[in-house]
TrEMBL record:
Keywords: Signal. It comes from Deinococcus xinjiangensis. This is Lipoprotein. It comes from the Bacteria. Residues 1-21 form the signal peptide.
Length: 153
């Protein structure tokens, strides 16, 4: 009888993991430092995860702000990314299209201290695992939640 009671509690125990801090959704979090730009009336500061290519910026994930308060932000990983390198930017969405457009005021596009790499198959030579990789100071890792992807105006 005790075994049945213990087995009955197993789904509740596993289900409560989400209630007590076990992450369900991967996310990218950080601080934004420096002097924020003036935001024109009707515009807003937004966060985007954008792809970098040899020819420029590819905006795979427009306007995916989860949380933002001028000094801290939280956003999700893109849901259907292509293989490649990505960065997180805060930007002033001057034309209110919900996308980062080159020419809009943004945090640095050239910060090479940290960036994201998505790899469908992984890359043993570059030490990238399958899926999302966070590269900080040249070292790749695969955290479910990034807490230190800091941006600077």
């Amino acid at each position: 009888m005790k075994k049945i009671a213990l087995l009955a509690l197993l789904p509740l125990t596993l289900g409560s993991c989400g209630l007590f801090g076990t992450p369900k959704t991967p996310s990218i979090n950080g601080s934004i430092t420096g002097t924020a730009p003036t935001v024109p009336a009707g515009s807003a500061i937004k966060i985007a995860v954008v792809g970098l290519t040899a020819t420029g910026i590819v905006n795979d994930t427009p306007g995916q702000v989860t949380g933002f308060n001028n000094t801290k932000y939280s956003t999700d990983y893109p849901s259907n990314p292509s293989d490649g390198r990505y960065i997180v930017v805060a930007f002033v969405d001057k034309n209110n299209d919900g996308k980062f457009n080159l020419g809009e005021t943004s945090t640095s596009l050239t910060d090479t201290n940290h960036y994201l790499v998505y790899s469908k198959n992984g890359d043993a030579n570059l030490k990238y695992g399958v899926g999302w990789n966070y590269v900080k100071d040249g070292t790749p890792s695969q955290p479910l939640i990034i807490t230190d992807y800091d941006l600077k105006w």
